[in-house]
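Model it.
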Amino acid sequence: MLEPTLALQKAIGDTLINTPAVTALVTPDHIRAGSTRPENLPEIIMSGGQTIFLGNASGSQLVARVYLDLHVWAIEDGAETAKHIGFAVCNALKIAPKTQGFSIDEFQLPAIRWMRDPDPALNYVHGVITAEAVVRWKV
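Modeled.
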């Protein structure tokens, strides 16, 4: 298995690029991991992973709580475009994404925050969707 935040990031990314409602708003090559500064708008950037190891489970498994932020960036039509993208992302992730090499025991999107760029000339809208999962894998 990949490191837990990277494994969750891959599962979420695969789900988003295979969800027509998301890719109708953001092209698949604009859904990526990396720096939170947008290069192409609109864009979804996965970053800010955190892993909290919860211990061992039966059968030589490890368990961890994993957090990952999905940054939604848009400029067209201001907040409306960004919020449409955020809504499509949340709908795509209403159930845990499909995984390879690990299991998701719990999955949720507990928070979405929306903010405008402080520079009015840029007119970016930035949303942060937090994904939280309890993952389990075999050593």
